[in-house]
Amino acid sequence: MKTTLTTHITATNLREKSIHFYRSLEFSIHESGERVFCSAKDIVLEINPDRYTRPGIKLYGENWNDQLDALSELSQIHETQNDFVLGDFCGSWIYLSKKDDSAIRSLELNSNPPMLGNYAGLSLETTDMGRTMEIYQALGFEVTTGTPDQGWILLQNETGFGISLMKPNSCPHLFFNPSMTFFNGQNNLEIIGQIRASMVPIAEEVTYFNKEGIVDNVILRDPGGYGFFIFND
Question: Where would I find the H helices in 56-116?
């Protein structure tokens, strides 16, 4: 089975506030009935006001039967009208769509990068590196870098969607599961300045890695709980 699309899902009871958050960060906003999608280069995110939704990712494919057999040995699977739903050991939810999503396919997605810079995929902190890795491998992700013994693994699926898994206590800052990660090198201070000018709230100003105490990394969090690491490396 081939995964045809991977998207982010954020939950919110503050629909307009969430739309404002993403529009302020230069995402394009697409409304399809009650559904709201945000897009920027390599990123598609759905703002879902359903109060039973939790932050995570959603995978679209033709048939999940083989994957469900393997996943049932690793995690409890719940079936809804539109999706199969399971959790990893990070607290992040995974939605497996039962059908291709014409609402997304019909959108003219924004090909420009967001204000946040260079998107590097999803970051997750896990209490069980091995079993979390097995869940994503059962979904077609392959390890490209790292090992569980090293405490860091990078996985990627056929759509190019990347996930970084980290052991507990790897990062000396706030860590929201899940969090999108952006690496901007020496341009990060300029991007932080743009974020401040946009008036988007900053969850944490990180000075830990800077000997001079300069805020050279920041962490954001959208109204639905999704995190964002805006880092220089």
Answer: 65-71, 102-105
Residues 223, 11: Cα–Cα separation, whole Å: 8
Q: Distance between CA 132 and CA 224 in Å, rounded? A: 23
CATH of domain 119-231: 3.10.180.10
Q: Which of the residue ranges 17-26, 32-41, 176-185 would you say has the lowest mean pLDDT?
A: 32-41
Q: Is 159 helix (H, G, I), strand (E, B) or coil?
A: coil
Mean of per-residue pLDDT scores for the chain: 92
Q: Which fold has domain 3-105?
A: 2,3-Dihydroxybiphenyl 1,2-Dioxygenase; domain 1 (3.10.180)
Task: State the pTM of this model.
Answer: 0.93
Q: Are 218 and 205 in contact (CB under 8 A)?
A: yes
